[in-house]
Amino acid sequence: QVQLVESGGDLVQPGGSLRLSCAASGFTFSAYWMSWYRQAPGKEREWVASISSTGGNTYYADSVKGRFTISRNNVQNTVYLQMNSLKPEDTAVYYCNAYASTNAYWGQGTQVTVSS
Q1: Distances in whole angstroms, Cα of residue 43 to Cα of each of 14, 40, 54, 62
Q2: Backbone torsion region of residue 55, taken as left when φ is above 0, otherwise alpha when ψ lies between -120 and 50, otherwise beta
Q3: Are 99 and 72 spatial neighbours (Cβ–Cβ below 8 Å)?
Q4: Which has the closest alpha carbon to 5: 55, 74, 72, 78?
Q5: Measured CA angle at 15 (ends 35, 5), to 5 deg
Q6: Are 98 and 46 in contact (CB under 8 A)?
Q7: Are 33 and 55 in contact (CB under 8 A)?
Q8: What is the pLDDT of residues 45-90, one digit of tens each?
Q9: β-strands 58-60, 78-83: how paired?
Q10: Are 96 and 72 in contact (CB under 8 A)?
Q11: Taking a C-beta distance cutoff of 8 angstroms, is the pair 99, 33 a contact?
Q12: Interatomic CA distance for residues 113 and 45, integer angstroms
């Protein structure tokens, strides 16, 4: 069955860094665009970053541009989100998403808390 398993969430101080991972299985990972979304308490889920199926193109929300980097490994079926210069407003549950023309899958999320 399809699985997206996020990991790497933690409590970190402002200005710190975290690297999230999302391990995929049960589908042809290399055929899917991968994205990260996040949802803060009391807010709607918002898009953070996307990467094309080959990894050749990446896109970022303005709020994270220059601080976050999305990458993928199509051999290990894993997508990453490197988060630097973290701010309290980055606090949220971060979700991994896989998208193709006819299918979309979601992970269960990993909590990131930025606080001193």
Answers
A1: 21, 5, 32, 17
A2: left
A3: no
A4: 78
A5: 30
A6: no
A7: no
A8: 999 999 999 999 999 999 999 999 999 999 999 999 999 999 999 9
A9: unpaired
A10: no
A11: yes
A12: 16
Amino acid at 19: R
- Using pLDDT thresholds of 50, 70 and 90, give the confidence band for residue 101: confident
Closest CA to 47 of 92, 111, 102: 92
| Sign of CA pseudo-dihedral 6, 69, 61, 64 | positive
Phi and psi at residue 72, in whole multiples of 5°? -150, 155
- The closest alpha carbon to 17, from 103, 114, 92, belongs to 114
80-90 pLDDT tens trace: 999 999 999 99
